[in-house]
Amino acid sequence: MTEPTKDDAPGWQGETVLISGLSVADATQQELVDWLSSQRNPAKPLLAYALHVGGLVALRENDKYRKTMDKASVIYADGIGPVLLGRSRGGRLGRSATTDIAPELLRRWAREGEPPRIALLGGPPGLASAAGHALSDKGLGKTVYAESGFQANYDVALASIKTATPDVLFVGMGAPREMEWCENHYLQLPDCVVITCGGWFGFLTGKERRAPRWVQRAGGEWVWRLAQSPSRLFGRYFKGLLVLGHELVKRTS
Predict the structure, then answer these.
(1) Burial of 20 (0-12, 13-18, 19+ CB in 10 A)
(2) Which of 83, 150, 170, 199 pairs with 131 at a CA distance of 20 to 30 A?
């Protein structure tokens, strides 16, 4: 199997800013949604990856993950940490949370034409299906495939996803696993927009609550999430703060 490269798929043509060695879209959330909405029915799978605090940590610990991220069609800053690093390097980018981008993209497609066909893969049994029902109930599209991300072999799942001909495939396995999964199965993916989405399915089903808007605007959503899942997130955010501090100091020294 040949490895996927940026030449295999349409790629972001706008301005970028270098964050931890990766070219990240120097764009607002609206600009990203505008671009993604124009990419419906791509000739090859289009890989959209978020860079957040967990990704900053993984980049320092896992060289393979860096190479995987570099093969994305577009990387966007999902989190206050990458945004601060990008702006310290002269960028104008804002925070582009997948939990905001994904529904807005679906809403845009639904307004402009046929309701988008949605495939979801990830989470424990039942979560992706419940998330798909939530999207359908909101009028954001038609869920054509939904299955757990915990599978010993993905051949049947990939064949089913391809047969379902989705406009978008959401892969919610957590970073870096979801990005590595996309790379490993790139040649079996349908020709659609593929968005890795971490724990978004949990937000859709109400298993996890988002911070109030004022907390999001203040850049404090990570504190809100930490308060909900301290045992799961403390280590990630502690390491992330260390990496962020190191990168900012390195930039100013």
Answers:
(1) buried
(2) 83
Neighbours of 56 (CB within 10 A): 25
Domain ranges of the chain: 17-205
State the Cα–Cα distance between residues 114 and 237, nearest whole angstrom. 40
Q: What angle do CA 72, 77, 83 make, to 5 degrees?
A: 145
In tens, the pLDDT along 91-135 reads 999 889 999 999 999 999 999 989 999 999 999 999 999 999 999
Positive/negative CA dihedral, 171, 68, 99, 232: positive
Residue 178 CA to residue 198 CA, distance in Å, equals 8
Any idea which residue has 């607002």 for tokens?
28
Q: Beta strands 142-147 and 22-25: pairing type? A: unpaired
Short-list 8, 9, 6, 14, CA closest to 34: 14
Torsion of CA 242, 243, 244, 250, to 10 degrees: 110
Model pLDDT, residue 113: 84
Q: With cut-offs at 50, 70 and 90, classify the pLDDT of residue 56.
A: confident
